[in-house]
Write a structure and sequence with these properties.
This protein is an alpha/beta fold. The chain has one domain: Alpha/Beta hydrolase fold, catalytic domain (Rossmann fold, 3-Layer(aba) Sandwich), CATH 3.40.50. It is 29% helix and 17% strand. The radius of gyration is 18 Å and the shape is globular.
């Protein structure tokens, strides 16, 4: 096994810690852009049977997409953090396009789903927030049907910051056959099954996942890792990054890293010295942001 532990040291000012504040799940299903979107990014909608309405998403199409009608492209699904929506993280497409034009990274499509607030990309037991179903069962098939994607595991990557990192990690563990690469960016990785407490039905996550313990077991990334180990080990590349001052997230990230070590799952683990819960600062400290997905896609055969 070649698990890598990288401790990146920088002389940084003390950064203010900003934790995810759980104010309860909510969602505006379609968010209208208020300003100009980054070059190559569009905001669109699709009809979700699960949500029973149109749901917004944003998508970045690379420079040659319109002119090269025969080419198919790999896709990165970028899940936003708590309190965000399908517009919040689109700025990252500017970095991707800059690298593509510089021949640093291959041309890729990037999709920004709408996960709402405090849903953690799970389905709620009462059906009000079918976020996982909407994303996995509806949006991804819609993207593959509508755009010239490499519609297979070898051509799909998933990532996200904070709630998006937490959601992308759980979804990758639950549906490993769908993704070749995972990038968890300071996303909590809690032991969901341990949170089941029928005596506190109004407290999260019991208020969201409901009274059936099996729902907690089915959504526990550690139990899913064990359940799907044969589809994960050697078949999915995993990158985890978190700041040493990210006190609300670092502990569970370290626990998840150790679980991967114990399971002998090869992965790359990075702690960024002095970094709090700051996505843009994390990107500054990791200028080769899309290198990991690029290598995953190369190894999978999706790109050269």
């Amino acid at each position: 096994m070649n698990t890598k532990l990288l401790l990146l040291c920088f002389l940084l000012p003390i950064l203010t810690y900003s934790a995810e504040k759980d104010k309860g799940p909510k969602i505006i299903w379609n968010n209208i852009p208020k300003g100009k979107l980054p070059n190559g990014v569009q905001h669109l909608t699709f009809f979700s049977k699960a949500a029973k309405q149109d749901v917004g998403y944003s998508i970045y199409l690379p420079p040659s997409y319109k002119s090269n009608s025969e080419k198919r492209y790999p896709v990165i699904y970028n899940l936003h953090g708590n309190g965000g929506n399908e517009l919040r993280g689109t700025f990252i497409a500017e970095l991707l396009e800059k690298g593509i034009k510089a021949k640093k990274w291959p041309e890729m499509i990037m999709v920004f789903p709408n996960g709402g607030h405090s849903t953690f990309y799970k389905d709620s037991y009462d059906g009000k927030f079918p976020i996982e179903t909407m994303f996995i069962k509806e949006l991804i098939p819609h993207i593959d049907k509508t755009y010239r994607t490499i519609a297979a595991r070898k051509g799909r990557c998933i990532e996200g910051f904070s709630m998006g990192g937490r959601g992308s990690t759980r979804l990758a563990m639950k549906y490993p056959e769908m993704f070749c690469s995972l990038f968890c960016q300071a996303g909590n990785v809690p032991k969901t099954a341990d949170s089941f407490n029928p005596g506190e039905p109004d407290k999260h996550p019991n208020s969201y996942l409901g009274p059936n313990k099996q729902n907690y077991i089915d959504n526990d990334p550690y139990l899913l890792l064990k359940k799907n180990i044969n589809q994960i080990k050697g078949k999915m590349r995993i990158l985890i990054a978190c700041g040493t001052k990210d006190f609300g997230h670092l502990n569970t990230v370290r626990i998840y890293h150790q679980a991967l070590v114990d399971a002998k799952v090869d992965h790359t683990y990075i702690e960024l010295e002095g970094l709090a819960h700051k996505m843009k600062k994390m990107i500054e400290l990791m200028p080769n942001w899309f290198d990991y997905h690029t290598e995953s896609l190369r190894r999978s055969g999706a790109t050269k």
